[in-house]
Amino acid sequence: MSLPLRSQSALEYMMTYGWAILVIVIVAAVLYSLGIFSPSSSLSTTVTGFANTPVSSAAFTNNGGLAFSVGDLVGYPIEITNVTEITASGSKITILPNITVSPSQTKVIIIPKAFSSSTQGSHESVSLTITYTEPGQVFPGPYTSTGTVSGTTPTLFFPTNQTFAAVSKLTITNSQTTATPSPFQQMINITSTSPGWAYISQDFGQNVEFFYPNGTVIPSWLENYTSSHALWWVKVGSIPASSSITIYMGFASSSTNLFNNKTTGEATQLSSTYAGYDNGANVFYVYFNANTSLSSFTQYDVSTLSQTTLNGEPVISFSANSAYGWAGFSNPIPLSFIIDGWIYTTQTTSMVGFVGQAQTSSDSGYLFGGGTGAGDTYVSITMSNSDALTGLADTGPENENSWEYVQVSYNDGDIIISGGNAPQSFSYTASASDTTYTSGYVGIGESGFSGYNYYRYMFVRAYPPNGVMPSVTFGSVS
Question: CB-based burial of residue 175 (10 Å sphere; 0-12 exposed, 13-18 middle, 19+ buried)?
Fold first, then answer.
């Protein structure tokens, strides 16, 4: 009896191509055993090798590391004592995990600094050598297992050795037709409705750090923090005209304190220890608090200049019939700038904003300032009891015997008075070659009273283009 024609054709097909199919199956099985088709591997990462210590779920991390899971095919517990990576550039990194892995386990190993920010977003291929021993066996080793991990590094790079619980993308947009100065102190005003608010530590935002996409930390200073909003100042580079820049706000675990008095910090009154984490001097052009040496100050008609306390808080005190005290600077500040400060006065009166003995590279004399005579400019403004988060003083009357937020702006020859009189002109017009004041004194003073002024802190920041602070858009948190 003959086979049906269709069955005979199928049999002939299997006889002809059976060996080829068998070879393909064997090759696929070998590749699977090497981890290439492992379902537990990262979709963007491939793993080859590691016969006795299978590696899976490998991935390049945002903080420059390489994380991977390692198992045990030896049949009894092994101890991984050493892992060496040869990076794509040929450099060698060695770590000593000293972890035990059983046949039924996988353990996660992280190699820090496995790649640099210069290669972020690129394809990397690194070689790993895992050295392990077999404790309790007749021949304990050591033995080695080698392989390769290949994949694409993240486009976002965290600061070195930093791990964040969440990250929010911030887009800062300069809508004006001129660029901001460099450096520029950008206001970051966050409310309880902003993305990421829930991740901010309730201990005065100490777990927040700002950084560029390449992982460079941006100096930041927290001026105010309440249960519903917070205000940071970040020191960024120039923001081009009609353009945007991208930075990131990282949230570490709520128990992590990232304040370090250098790149991250907070205002004097926010710390349990006065100015314990105050890094204002690293963010602003000029900054002083009650810890600032009095030798850096000069004054006009001040009978008393001292470091004292007010209601238990350290302060700098001025007293006289006319009190003008200001802090010196030797680092350049731009021709247009803003002075902000917190002042407590014991008598209702007008305030005076001024610059004293400021000079440029082409003029070494007094340009305008706090004395009488040619070149002096007095600016009458009112103090404000408005929330410092607004960044502005209002038109309300000065409140005596309370802390007040004061702000005076100098815009390249014009004085912009917050909630006060019309702009007035300085007696000095900057030459084309002048871009900064190279040295001098800046400050806020008070005149025509008998009493005391107390200063919590004062700082000088860059004047935004046309007086318009660039806007901040908060992206989703990931």
Answer: middle
